[in-house]
Amino acid sequence: MRASIVRRNHLNDYEVTYILRPALEESEVEERANVIAEIVRGQGGEVVAVERLGKKRLAYEINDAREGNYVVMQFKAAAGVSKELDRLLRLHEDVLRALIVRLDAKMLTHMAALAAATPPPPPAPA
User: Fold this and answer.
1) Which of 29, 46, 63, 67 is the most exposed place for a label (fewest CB within 10 A)?
2) Pair type for strands 65-77 and 12-20
3) Domains, the chain, ranges and CATH?
4) pLDDT tens-digit map of 56-67
5) Is the CB of residue 68 less than 8 Å from the CB of residue 91?
6) 35 vs 91: CA distance, rounded Å
7) SS3 sequence, 52-81?
8) For residue 104, how far is the Cα from the chain centroid?
9) Percent of the chain surpassing pLDDT 70
């Protein structure tokens, strides 16, 4: 009985990459990213990082769009949260595509090593 209780409360590490419609302004992309992060928080998850990669050309057209605004979000949550997030992203009119992957310990170690090896970005000009 105890093991099932511990397992139910265990948070997994996830990463979701989603592509938003290209017609959105930067402020709208920020707003949509915040709404999606709130979905995770509202379900009891924890958002670790959100990175907006900007507008990029798509490998193939999706709904007549040739480019899209890419956003990557890392989060910790129970398994049911990732399924609910996937369902809600499919229903969201501004999301062209989304992919949620569960990160295992080996991947997290690799990502931490990459982050440590990457020099920090230069300071923004004043």
Assistant:
1) 63
2) antiparallel
3) 8-105 (3.30.70.60)
4) 998 888 888 899
5) no
6) 14
7) EEEEEEEEEEECCEEEEEEEEEEEEECHHH
8) 16
9) 83
